[in-house]
Each structure stands twice: as structure tokens, then as C-alpha cells.
Amino acid sequence: MALLTALGLMSGTSMDGIDLALIETDGAAAVRMGPSASLDYDDAERSLLRQALRDAAAMTDRAARPGVLAEAERRLTASHATLVRRFLAEQAIEPRQVAVIGFHGQTVLHRPAERLTVQIGDGAALAAATGIPVVSDLRAADVAAGGQGAPFVPAFHRALVEAGTLPGPVAVLNLGGVGNVTYVERGQDPIAFDTGPANALIDDLMLERTGRAVDADGRAALAGTVDAAALAALLDHEYFGKKPPKSLDRNEFSRSAVASLSTEDAAATLTAFTAGSVALARRWLPKEPALWVVCGGGARNPAILAALAARVPGAVTTADAVGWSAAMMEAQAFAYLAVRSLDGLPLSFPSTTGVPRPMTGGVLSRPEPAPGPTMVTA
């Protein structure tokens, strides 16, 4: 298949901003990474998105937009369009040179047991604003068919691993707001599931205690001491005993166990919780990974990396260290998945989300004057 130029856009559960990545791919084994860019949300946008999470909690209709959700969707889409136009201008790329944009949107609700997942973001509006076809709502078909809808980038992880020479099996560990792992063994379908919290609890703690949205460089955690009783209480959660496929909502876990601790000790304990949940996830893998490749925000946190190295027997490294991009992994993945969607290729598998069969998906929106969005089906 011919290589297509695609843009991927990701706004993750940490809600710190938007990542954009350009790749060239055939949607299969070939992936050539290009330039990337980011746009930080301002304080008002972060506040709006946090309120959108609260307003989405009671949703039962994924098309509904109660409370601030409609305004949040409009502003989120506008910010994505701003980043795309700025990037194209800076890179001297014409919209016609880009085959498709993979637009993840912002997850505000994820309840696969109810066959309900909601990512706000208006694909048709983004296509109109950029002049580029957009594939959005990529998780919906999987969840509607009974899948978990997450993790959703293992197909891309597999492509990266199989294109290289890393010792296997390889576990690709994405530590964004929520943690997820993809187990890749050559010649086999990937195995994937959410491991537990990643940065979400730590970020929320730091925002509440210090007004800063992250534990920069893990400084608070490295200055603190893990509270063994609090850690044991956190790890005594029913989720860790559930067999995959399984996935999490960002707000599945509570920080109540560390409420009485100092900021440093609480950060250290929540960091150990992230690493401990990854260690518990090993029981569901066919073999011990020879290598753990960490991507997402956790790859930039020395405290998390040290805690992981102390708890898993395989080597721990970062995506950057093996020639990938820790920061842009998910944005690249959604560009890759958009191309697969255009070609009707599977985005998810029984071994990754528990969907009954390999599933394609996504909603394709073309710029005017083409007709409105159409659902891509298997």
C-alpha cells in the first residue's frame, strides 16, 4: 500500500494540552515519523474541561451535551484547529498534502460496561476549519460492540516493535493519566489492558496542594517517603484482581488513603501506587517482558521510572531511548489509526479490548462541500 501523510491529535486524561504529530504510513508495517508540535491549554480551558468531566458523570446518552459540555467541545475543537493551522504554516505544508487527521478528542466519560464512552470534539467542524478529512470518535464502534474501547493504540505499538530489533517480549507502557500496557511478542496479536492509575492521581494531588498541575521531575515524590499502610490500601482494589480485557475511567481511584500525609509523602505513595499497579499487571501477561518501554508523561518522571525499575524484573527504558517519541506516541498512534480506518483495517482486537472480533471504526468527516460525517464500519 502507498504511504499516506497523516496528522494525529491527542488530548489526554491529564488535560494539560494538545499534542500533534505527523507521520507517513501505510497503516500496516511502514511508519515514518515526522515533525510534531504541542499547544498548552490555558487555565480557563483546563478549568472548563474539569467541569466538563463533572457534568458528564451522569450521562446516559453519548450524544447529549449537558452543562458546559457543548461549550467545552466548541473550545476544544477550536484549539485543535488553531494548532493544526499553525503547524501547517510553520512546516510549509498545504492542507491538500495531508490525507487525513486522526482526532481523538477529550474523554469525559468511559463506562464500557454500559457500552458508553464519550470523547468530545467536533470532527466535522475540524474538517471544515482545516480543509482536511478528519476521522474522529474512533473508540465508539468498539464499545458499541461490547469491547472496552481501551487501550486503543496497541496496533501502533506492535508496528513499532516489529519494525525494530528490541529484545522480546516487549511491554510498551503508556503512563498518561491512566496507565496501560501492550504486550508484544512477534507473530502474535498484541495483548493490552489498563494497568491502573498513572499520573492522574499525582496531578490532582499537586494541583490541590500546590496549584501546580504536575510533580515536575518527580521532585515531590523523590523528597517524600512511601507510607506502606496507605500503599497497601490503594493496591487493595478489586480492579487489580479482574482478568483482562479491562479498562478504567480516569476517576476510578480515590486519593483518600493519602489525605492525611504531607504533600511529599503523598506524592511518593501515589508514585509507588502507579508502579505497584504495573507490577500487579504482570500476572496477566504470558511471559515476563524482557523490556519495558515507557511512554507518556510518566517517561519524564524520574521518580516513576525508579519505582518501576525496583518492581519489575525486566529492563526499564523510555520510548525516546529506543528511538521513538515518549511525548508524541499517542498523537502518532491516532494518525496511524486514522489511516487504518480509511482502509477498513482493524483498530482493536479481542486480545486488546475484548471486542468480539477485530474491529475497524471511526467517523469520517470531509471538508465542505462533501456530505456530512459517515460512520466507517467493518
Descriptive notes:
- This protein is an alpha/beta fold and 378 residues long.
- The chain folds into two domains: 4-149 and 328-375, ATPase, nucleotide binding domain (Nucleotidyltransferase, domain 5, 2-Layer Sandwich); 154-322, Nucleotidyltransferase, domain 5, CATH 3.30.420.40.
- 35% of the residues lie in helices and 21% in strands.
- It contains twelve helices and 14 strands.
- The chain has helices at 43-56, 69-91, 123-130, 140-144, 154-163, 200-210, 219-223, 228-235, 263-281, 302-311, 329-342, 350-353, and strands spanning 4-10, 17-25, 31-40, 100-103, 106-111, 116-120, 134-136, 170-175, 178-184, 191-197, 291-295, 315-318, 363-365, 374-375.
- The strands form three sheets. It has a seven-stranded mixed sheet. Strands 10-9-8-11-12 form a five-stranded mixed sheet, sandwiched between helices. A two-stranded antiparallel sheet has the order 5-6.
- Strand 13 and strand 14 (374-375) form a beta hairpin.
- Helix 1 packs across helix 2 (69-91), helix 6 packs antiparallel against helix 9 and helix 9 packs across helix 10 (302-311).
- The radius of gyration is 20 Å and the shape is globular.
- The two termini are 19 Å apart.
- The model has no long low-confidence stretch (mean pLDDT 94).
- Belongs to the anhydro-N-acetylmuramic acid kinase family.
